[in-house]
């Protein structure tokens, strides 16, 4: 990758997150921290409003936006693998949102890229194990995690086969064995619990902020099962 291409890619990376560390940039492009500093300085001298905070990282000043970005052939092709996975992951809300996104991205592609994507789509398949387990709540759960708001759910327990109503504070989600799982603080049980999204019968989003759990760490959560 030549330097101009790398600097452009760094600018895109800076716009992908609120704050990006020099280490993240160095690891992505396999360059030294000194090279990162030099590339950031080049962008700043070119007029890009990049701020920095010692010990935190770099950020783009609010209000600055890149012009529309064209996708490379390889980037466009990667959409197919994502589409195949999402079609088979089971949650209808995620599939709906991704399809909407995909239409918008495809609308920006050149005609030959659209033809190539159609060809790849017809020649890519995912042999999944087991049946698709459907759910329809992932989008609502994601919104609750990012907004730090509680949700009300009617939950059908897998083991006791009983229906309970609960207030939960969603903290994180993961996908395993064809099932989406939400890790949440359960007000009914007064502790962190895991809930299968396909066992949620009904869900209501609320504007109530988290009351119990504001310092959750997904890494520490899974590490606790290994000790």
UniProtKB/TrEMBL annotation:
HTH deoR-type domain span: 3-58
Alphabetical list of Gene3D superfamilies matching this protein: Winged helix-like DNA-binding domain superfamily/Winged helix DNA-binding domain
Keywords tagged on the record: Transcription, Transcription regulation
Name listed for the protein in its UniProt record: WYL domain-containing protein
Source species, domain of life: Bacteria
Transcription regulation found in the keyword field: yes
Key word DNA-binding present: no
A single GO molecular function term of this UniProt record: DNA-binding transcription factor activity
